Amino acid sequence: MTPLSHAEQKQLLYAKSNLPLSLRAVIKHPLFLFLLFASYGPSINIIGQLRFTEIAILIIGSIYIRDIVNASRRNHVFFAVMFVFTGLCYVCFDLINHGITQITIKRSASYLLLGTEFVIIAWLISMNRNRILAALLGFCCSFLIVYTFGINIPNNNFHQVPWLVGMGKAVTLLPLIAMACLPRLRHFFIPLIIFLIIFHLMMGSRHLLLITIFTFLLLIVSEFFGHKTAQKFHFRQFGILVIISGCFLSLISITYISLTSLNVIPQKVLDRIERQVDAPYGLIVTARPEVAAAIIGITKKPLTGYGSSTLDNQIFYDYTTFQSAGNFSSFMENFKNKDKYMSTPSHSHLFGAWVDAGFLASIAWIFVVMFSLQLLMSTSFYRDALTPLTLFITLTMLWDVIFSPGPNRIETGLFLTFLFFARYRIQFHKS
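Above: the chain sequence. Below: its structure as tokens.
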């Protein structure tokens, strides 16, 4: 009997499937991916904190589990396993720290879902440029849909400060996606990026302001010092980035002083910045008191953490001290709200996992930071239509891992999938 060829074996596998091959083509079509991620914003919590989009992704994963296992890339599997390992660390060290079972299950299950959803999203995208751009466009449109129609979503703060909790990120991503889709016209979108920088400042979104500014800075570097083929890293590139960053930070300071004198910046934003700058602990500590307090807590229990449902008195004292910025009445008011906290405030993926479940729980996020930094250095000297989008998403990933609560499973999975696509593209074009 003549053995079947690889193509014939593949056809036989599809023939034995319970679902037709056309369904596979539908769920991997860019239009379907756009609609899938566009539904993320207006979806509701169906089971606990699972949104409709997550359930749809998990259903797709359960149907095509064999294909996903066979087709998943080694890097995708590695990061997924690391996220699952983080969830197991929460279980283990919460048992040591006598954590509350309900919170332990919630935290560990969140990381299990993150790893699973990331692998499924990566399989749906399959390193395809049109699919990843369609998915990102749908993700951005989801926030616009929620804001336009006033739809209630699990994030209760969205309609109060929409620009700070999703809308600003979505609007900034749109012109960057357009630059990737229209490479010959990408330079016409640069004035729009400058306008967004000013608008972020006026809206008081400092993290988006910093991310967009450095995206613009590195975009200039890639245009003037970059190559059409990706280059190997050498220290001259690092020196160029340091010099230009120093010059640009000086320009930012001068611009800030000018805009302040012209009364362009809202007074509320100015008051908050001045209060944090004049604080005895400095701007960074006062702006992110949760991160500073978590780092202090990590130095005391670096291996086991405090548990996901344990609030250490000293850490909370440090947190309220930094948050009050030397104001005693504000300190006492914040300290009275201690009972509202179920765990150590951290406001960081990396330091939150570390302070809750020890060093082992933070390894996954350390790998994400290392991977993002490596990609950032490579992209900064790669002149391509996809470079601005890659820079923004890489910087956003770094900021979220270090300075944002979460993780947001769909956003993290989608952005990480894009970063792997960008890395694959750079390696493919490396000279």
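Residues 20-280+344-428 form one domain.
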